[in-house]
Write a structure and sequence with these properties.
- By secondary structure, the chain is mostly helical.
- It has 2 domains: 81 residues, Rna Polymerase Sigma Factor, Chain: A (Orthogonal Bundle), CATH 1.10.1740; 78 residues, Orthogonal Bundle (Arc Repressor Mutant, subunit A).
- It is 80% helix and 0% strand.
- Helix 2 packs across helix 5, helix 3 packs across helix 5 and helix 8 crosses helix 9.
């Protein structure tokens, strides 16, 4: 905590930061750990969040306590989710690089065609709302289930199911418009 305090100017900021640190550090860790399932990564997210909060401290001092917690929790979740996506992507890339052609019986041409289709689909998905894109990418590219997606996005599983259904309908319409279906 003392390293953070060195970054602050006034005694009032230092006192406010100490209160936030003592009150929320454990809850921040548990929120990050719930998404990442890794203690070291969760600690990194908490540290990174505190560094972000130092820049926003003056604004936070003017807000009620519960709004501050909501703000902090939002930052922790977003940073955790971004790290989770990054690590998942890195694992997927590693797996793809080690995979050999004969493991799945696919030749190089089939793999190239599959990658081209994947890129086309991702480009078309950019025409959809961000919430639709997020759910479909987590569901089909990252292979997360509804419960995991709901936890990451802070929504109910029913809400995620509805978003997924709407996103699929929207994507089907986009695919039809672009000649993928007759």
């Amino acid at each position: 905590m003392y390293r953070y305090l060195l970054l602050l100017d006034t005694d009032e900021e230092k006192e406010f930061f100490q209160k936030i640190y003592i009150r929320y550090k454990n809850e921040m860790f548990y929120a990050a750990f719930a998404i990442l399932q890794n203690s070291a990564d969760a600690e990194d997210i908490v540290h990174d969040t505190f560094l972000t909060l130092i820049d926003k401290l003056n604004h936070m001092m003017e807000e009620p306590t519960e709004r501050n917690w909501n703000y902090i929790l939002t930052i922790v979740k977003h940073k955790s989710y971004n790290l989770y996506k990054k690590k998942k992507w890195e694992i997927d890339q590693e797996w793809d690089s080690f995979r050999q052609d004969d493991v799945f019986g696919e030749g190089m041409d089939a793999r190239i065609t599959k990658l081209e289709r994947k890129e086309q689909l991702l480009k078309l998905m950019k025409k959809m709302r961000q919430s639709y894109q997020d759910v479909l990418i987590m569901q089909y590219y990252q292979e997360l289930n509804i419960m995991e997606i709901a936890q990451i996005l802070g929504k109910t599983p029913d809400n995620i199911r509805h978003i997924s259904m709407r996103a699929k309908r929207k994507l089907q319409g986009i695919l039809e418009e672009n000649g993928f279906f007759d």
